[in-house]
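Please complete every field before forwarding. Incomplete forms are returned to the sender.

SECTION A: IDENTIFIERS
Entry label: holo-466
Bound molecule: flavin-adenine dinucleotide
Molecule representation: SMILES string

SECTION B: INPUTS
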Amino acid sequence: MTAAYVLTKSPANLDVNVYEASEQVGGLSRSLRLWNQIVDLGPHRFFSRDRRVNSLWLEVVGRDYVMVPRLTRILYQGRYFQYPLQAMDALQRLGPLEATRCVASYGAARFKQPKDYCESFESWVTARFGRRLYEIFFRTYSEKLWGIPCSELDSDFAAQRIRKLSLGAALKQLAVRRKNNEHRTLVDRFAYPNGGTGQVYERMAEMVQERGGRVHLGAHIKRVVASAGRVRGIELYSDEFVPCDAVISSMPLTSLIARLNGVPERIREMARRLSYRNTILVYLEIAGELDSRDNWVYVQDPGLTVGRITNFRNWSPSLYGNSPNTILALEYWCNSDDELWRRSDGELGRLGADEFRASRLASDAADVLRSHVVRIPKSYPVYQRGYKDILRPIQEVLRSVEGLQAIGRYGAFKYNNQDHSILMGILAAENVAAGTAHDLWQVNSDFEEYQEACRIDETGLVPAPC
Ligand SMILES: Cc1cc2nc3c(=O)[nH]c(=O)nc-3n(C[C@H](O)[C@H](O)[C@H](O)COP(=O)(O)OP(=O)(O)OC[C@H]3O[C@@H](n4cnc5c(N)ncnc54)[C@H](O)[C@@H]3O)c2cc1C
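SECTION C: PREDICTED COMPLEX
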């Protein structure tokens, strides 16, 4: 949607068409109306330090947003820990014996780093936090999410999501009380559209159409046609062929490779080795409100299958309107051949209700009124060790097709947040409309450093100190 939005603003007067397989725009960031409330597909916090991304978001949303105070915690063995992990909070809640073990194991990790400490998620986290904290706070959640042992998971996942956190830095921060609390406050509030996260993309679709672009819903692309080294058009499941000069694809990268003609069988075979994880969202309507103020909770408890619980009542009053009740979304992750994926909605609703009670987010008396299930295939690209060796030749093949760009979360096989996908959309559109040569594979790859970092607050765009 971002690419179409930018292309229809271009003075180049392009004929822009969006083909969306489902009946609604927004993809994983769409919002739904449920039981007279608005919900997202799990938590969707928008955050960026990139001026281009934030400016575009504000241009679309206008002043129709609120700043949401962020509270997220980790549930481990019936206790709630602050997230992002804070050294003193974690050590205090673990108790003196466990805290001593954690500090000793952290010391040991600092003293002797494993040779492969940059390669797997397990060694990356262990080197920074020590094995004990890794086992408690990182392993269970990550293995639930990815479905493979953390030793098999590439460290890219940690590098993209955990970044500069380390127990050493946290302990230092405790010793030297920082005068400037800016870093915390930056991430402690985030801008959220009054109509739910999907409002951003619904508005983009409206604006695209107002400017003469077309958004075709229920339009599933069957084939991307290329010949003599350049893209020629797309074919829909209705067998209609649409000729075009440029295709910006955000369908799963594996699907694109399967649907693009002329790709060598060796590359098709490689693409089949890339895998995605599915999400099942079990929404529960709970009578009344919960005491907890968390926007969402990470469930590290190995005894529970659920990985994360979102409480939409703690996002914005505009989501629940007049309803007195609370909607929670419980996230379950699995593969398509897992028994969980095949369970009926009723069974999943019961599992969600049981696990909600076991999480102790509310007292035993909390009344679960009804449930609703949404299944999302291919929601997480799995960064299995070695995946970059598979991606490289695939990227080369795609680069060789003039006019074709693969972007987005499953489109480029990147563990993107909205901001990364928006940036990819902006850059892809510039490549088409302005003839730039942005390398989209670099987005969300390195630690981004911004020349003019900025953020959104209630007044609009403001500079953000680095
Ligand atoms: C549970 C969960 C929580 C998240 N939390 C956050 C968060 O807190 N903050 C944040 O910023 N991001 C979050 N994200 C990530 C965010 O949702 C994605 O980064 C973003 O939606 C990706 O946008 P995209 O356009 O790249 O891909 P998608 O949203 O996946 O859109 C791809 C679109 O392509 C369509 N499509 C696929 N195949 C075809 C085809 N053959 N023909 C036509 N159309 C096709 C799909 O229907 C879909 O609409 C979360 C994601 C999940 C799953």
